[in-house]
Amino acid sequence: AVDHLDLTPGATSSDRPTSTGFESCVGVEHIDFEPALKIDGRVEYYLQDIMDRLVDSLRKILFRQLQAFMVKTSVASWLKDTPNQIILTVSLTDFTSEMAGVFEKIESQPDIMQIFYQKKVDGLIDLVDLVRTDLTKADRMKVMCLITLDVHSRDITLKLINFGVKDFNHFEWQSQLRFAWIDDDKGGDCHILIVDATFLYGYEYIGNGARLVITPLTDRIYVTATQALKLCMGCAPAGPAGTGKTETTKDLGAMLAKCIYVFNCAPEMDYKSMGDIWKGLGASGAWGCFDEFNRLIAEVLSVCSTQYKAVLDAIVGGRPT
């Protein structure tokens, strides 16, 4: 979702420029590189350097904003200087952390879940009041996305109350996407946990765009798709046209910060073009979403299944991309 880099010219006409950050092509947003990157060498090398610096910068911003969120004076001031996807990740990380604290105290304080639910409702009311104020287009989108995910957090809390859940390991809680910053020798990283699967946050920049409303059906697809990922398999959501199968898959990719490409399959596609797609996905580590997969002719579908199996076998074997 990168539109263009912000470049500072070199000291002389022969000196290469330096990139200080980039602008988003999804919504209005600017991200600074930490530190700035000298654009030097061959194009295939410095493009990889740019991607690596982007990931590293987002990781640093996420860690810094996790600390800032704990000591913020107001949500409005904290939102303005924080990228959209970092806001949502920090919010979900904080929700997971607070819910863990609720489960620790629930035996000695039985009404703590209801208190936490009221806290989420009050937070939502504050966000609704904030979105009614005079905000820029970019900040309004950030608040709207935060409201969308906070509503889901509120719904999860209400569901746990209605089911009388008092155990952290209860399936109703374990089946939700849970974000946590886990420290390690390299300074820590953001992990996403759901049931018995754990994924690293991908740090793919996804811009300042709208997010899907999460329904109970969305939750079920998240569980199904993540279990398929854990088992190094594919996932094929089925249902009538226009019900959101592709959009839900894209939204899960956004949640995990993974790059996802959507391909509309057609009878004109042959095994060579499909093979090129598999090679690209395998080399980049991106997700592929194949719409209208059944429109491929039988001969192509037969070869395609073998190509797909080769990719899955490489993932299971831990082959390098």
What class, by secondary structure content? alpha+beta
Order of helices and strands: EEEHHHHHHEEEHHEHEH
Low-confidence sequence ranges:
none
Q: Round the Cα radius of gyration to an integer and report it.
A: 22 Å
Query: In this structure, how is the largest beta sheet organized?
Result: 3 strands, antiparallel
What percent of the residues sit in helical stretches (DSSP H or I)? 40-55%
From the spread of the alpha carbons, the general shape counts as globular
Report the mean per-residue pLDDT as an integer.
93
Order the strands across the largest sheet as they lie in space.
Answer: 1-2-3
The total count of strands amounts to: 8
β-strand percent reads: 5-15%
Terminus-to-terminus distance: 22 Å
